[in-house]
Amino acid sequence: xxxxxxxEVPRPEVRCATCRAELxxxxxxxxxxxxxxxxxxxxxxxxxxxxxxxxxxxxxxxFCPWCGRDIADADSSSxxxxxxxxxxxxxxxxxxxxxxxxxxxxxCPWCGREQSWRYDHFENICPHCDKGVDDWMDTCPWxxxxxxxxxxxxxxxxxxxxxxxxSRIRDWSYRILLRPGVSGVAPDAPKIIEIDRxxxxxxxxxxxxxxxxLTGLLLHELGHSFxxxxxxxxxRGRFRxxxxxxxxxxxxxxxxxxDFERRGVATTLADYVSAYAGTHPQEDFAETFRFYVARRGxxxxxxxxxxxxxxxxxxxxxxxxxxxxxxxxxxxx
Length: 333
Known about the structure:
- By secondary structure, the protein is an alpha+beta fold.
- The strands form four sheets. A three-stranded mixed beta sheet has the order 7-9-8. A two-stranded antiparallel sheet has the order 1-2. A two-stranded antiparallel sheet has the order 3-4.
- The protein has helices at 154-166, 198-201, 211-229, 237-243, 281-294, 299-308, 313-329; strands spanning 14-15, 22-23, 91-92, 100-101, 124-125, 132-133, 175-179, 184-186, 189-196.
- 25% of the residues lie in helices and 8% in strands.
- Helix 1 (154-166) packs across helix 3.
- It folds into two domains: 24-122, no CATH class; 151-329, no CATH class.
């Protein structure tokens, strides 16, 4: 006789009352609209709520695991428990009190000390509270701040958007995120542009960069995003003659320092706008895009500088290829 299969009971969805987005239990805010959430004991699971934050707690708790306030009374357990009624055991207290805590409790309900969690099932971490967030989230579900980190770089974002508009480049629904690690764009997610947050939140002053430098970095990464978003364009003969084979192996070092603040065309390498552009065809296009947008698409001004710095005909052709493609996207003739 074959063993009986246990049928899984689907977990009921919890949705935001404002935007109807799906929520995870005990999020502090809706990740879609930013609404502050309250997890009250409406179903009488434990029969107890914190008198300070009004979130669901157990009468055995000595501290509220959500706000950290002292809620001990005569019903509180004298010994730390593993999982009282209405709560699950996910880990032991970080401070060794012996009590069990449930994800994502901020504080231990037995000793009141702050807990730390791993957020491996999230795509990234919030630049404000270092807790897990996904790339689609506009609001951090833990701290309620901007999960993208765009509120930390408003000047650079405004400048980059203004330059794109003046250059008459249509918005391709790109999304800029402030994240730990190396700045860049993944080919399989061309609209996601990640900027290394240490340039803005660096603990050491030398890690931070100026607003002009940050704007140049944004324009460079926007160039990568623009290229990946219009990848079929790279198969055309005119593009390949100007920039080369962009599908070739990429071996540019991630720690390569580039002066993105510089607006003047480099005098070295006659066929490139900068030394970094000569490292790979993709970087060549990104640098060409940066100079094109930073100069607001004014080819006459650029070509005049090319002549003074004795640039090759290839550089002229690169900007003409980009300019003509931008015009074709807008339906110009």
